[in-house]
Amino acid sequence: MSNHNLTTSIQAALSQLENAYNPAEVEAGMYQGWEESGYFKPTFDKDESFSIALPPPNVTGSLHMGHGFNNAIMDALTRYHRMDGDNTLWQPGTDHAGIATQMVVERRLEAQGIKRRDMTREDFVDKVWEWKEESGGNITSQIRRLGSSVDWSRERFTMDDGLSNAVKEVFVRLFDDGLIYRGKRLVNWDPKFQTALSDLEVENHDEKGSLWHFRYHFTDKDLTTQDGKNYLVVATTRPETLLGDTAVAVNPSDERYAHLVGKTITLPITGRVVPIVADDYVEKDFGTGCVKITPAHDFNDYELGRRHSLPLINILDERANILPAMEVYPDLQTREPELETTPSEYAGLERFAARKFLVAQAGEQGWLEDIEDYALKAPRAERGGTIVEPWLTDQWYVAVKELAKPAIDAVEDGSIEFVPAQYKNMYMSWMTDLQDWCISRQLWWGHRICMV
Question: CA separation (Å) from 323 to 37, 156, 191, 328, 412?
């Protein structure tokens, strides 16, 4: 063939091609062919094996850039080992995403005028399964569009019977080994969805708020501060928690208040008599140097309360309304009815309505010292946006320090090396400063553990 005829043939062929690459047209059929031919299945005829479990994306929505990044790395590793002759499996699946899925379905029902609490748990779960069947295919179709070489014949969902049984088995084993326990302590509580949240599910938002200054008068009428006042001034961004105060704290090196440590003040509204304690947690140069202590509604106050054996007074119910009779947990066990001094007019008030009412009452009775604008970090639920409340409740916890020990040892003995090396310090800081992990949620959708 002459050069002229060859050029003509090439030009004719090129004219039949699209001007731009069309991935949807080319790749969809290609991937379907790979899947139908079983190219992604392990062969079980090799000496060496390689396996990755796809970190299961939530069934609630769509993949994001993080998923795409992870899939690209895992797919590269998987294809490398498959081409290298290893018996290779990339295990796919999706996660039931407890609180996220429940929130989506609740919103769908509310749009129809139906509230979750108007249904039985069983009926609500049926609605969730219906929604999952409608939406669950979106994630898996997107993983296919990425070209991820997973073995779809082994696809799993975290609420499948086999995985649910595995959750129960592991839970019981960890409980028997003392690594899971039930305890009453403060958690991040979402009053809207009425469930505990992890720290990762709480976002701190910079917001404009107020700092209220209140006068707490000494129980001893003859007692005064160095400047002759018969009261201490404390400041708070959450006035309603006054109902649960069990102490006022000062710094032990603060000479202004040294003569007051061990004395008592009488709380306004409740009339509860509480001690003045000394603790290094208090910054003597911040504000007045006096801090109200509410162990059942503040994480820092909780730890201070434990150090000084203060009672824990829970003033809120699961919806963050003021309890008509406060539940008291000194040392997380003993009940002391004499501390239940919430006035009846506060009973049942929503927390922010109670705040407004308390501030108005303080102004009328003359123990409101000052109100100032204050920039604060408001803890909000990541998904619902509700202000999260530290709340005293029974939950299940994992004792993480024991589990962290092998991970720490592996770095200290050189079995694991960090590159760059400075990340070792960050890792060790994380692993040595762990708090026990709250694993229980008060949801209707998800794995259910019933203890008898």
Answer: 64, 44, 14, 11, 50
pLDDT above 90: percentage of residues in the chain = 66
Burial tier of 265 (Cβ tally within 10 Å: 0-12, 13-18, 19+): buried
From residue 339, give the alpha-carbon distance in Å to each of 296, 314, 347, 389, 392.
14, 11, 15, 22, 17
| Burial readout 86-106 (b: 16 or more C-beta within 10 A, e: otherwise) | bbbbbebbbbbbbbbbbbbbb
Nearest to 399 by CA among 177, 198, 212, 234: 177
As separate numbers, helices (DSSP H) first and strands (DSSP E) second, the chain gives 11, 17
Q: Give me the sign of the Cα torsion angle 21, 24, 26, 31.
A: positive
Task: Report CA dihedral (221, 225, 228, 230) to the nearest 10 degrees.
Answer: -30
Structure tokens at 104: 């989506």
d(CA 129, CA 56): 18
Contacts within 8 Å (CB) and 24+ apart, 223-230 = 223/260, 223/263, 225/256, 225/257, 225/260, 226/256
Cα–Cα separations (whole angstroms), residue 7 to 16, 27, 353, 415? 15, 30, 83, 62
Q: Say yes or no to pLDDT of 20 above 90.
A: no
Residue 329 has pLDDT above 50, yes or no: no
Tokens 């710094």 map to which residue?
Answer: 251
> CB count, 10 Å around CB of 391?
22
The Cβ of residue 264 has, within 10 Å, a number of other Cβ atoms equal to 17
Strands 231-236 and 87-91, bridge-based pairing: unpaired
Task: List the structure tokens of 267.
Answer: 């709380």
* Residue of 217, 206, 289, 288 lying closest to 252 (CA atoms): 289
Integer CA distances (angstroms), 253 to 146, 223, 279, in order: 63, 20, 9
Where residue 325 falls (left for φ over 0; alpha for ψ -120 to 50; beta otherwise) is beta
Q: What is the pTM of this model?
A: 0.81
Tokens 């109902």 identify what position?
243
Per the DSSP assignment, residues forming a β-bridge with 213 are 235, 370
Distance (Å) of CA 373 to CA 203, 356, 410: 22, 16, 50
The CA-based dihedral angle spanning residues 18, 19, 22, 25, taken in that order and rounded to the nearest 10 degrees:
-10
The angle at the Cα of 139, spanning 134 to 140, to the nearest 5 degrees, equals: 95
What pairing do the DSSP bridges indicate for beta strands 231-236 and 195-197?
unpaired
More confident residue, 383 or 197: 197
pLDDT tens profile 237-246 = 999 999 999 9
Digit-coded pLDDT (tens) for 419-431: 999 999 999 999 9
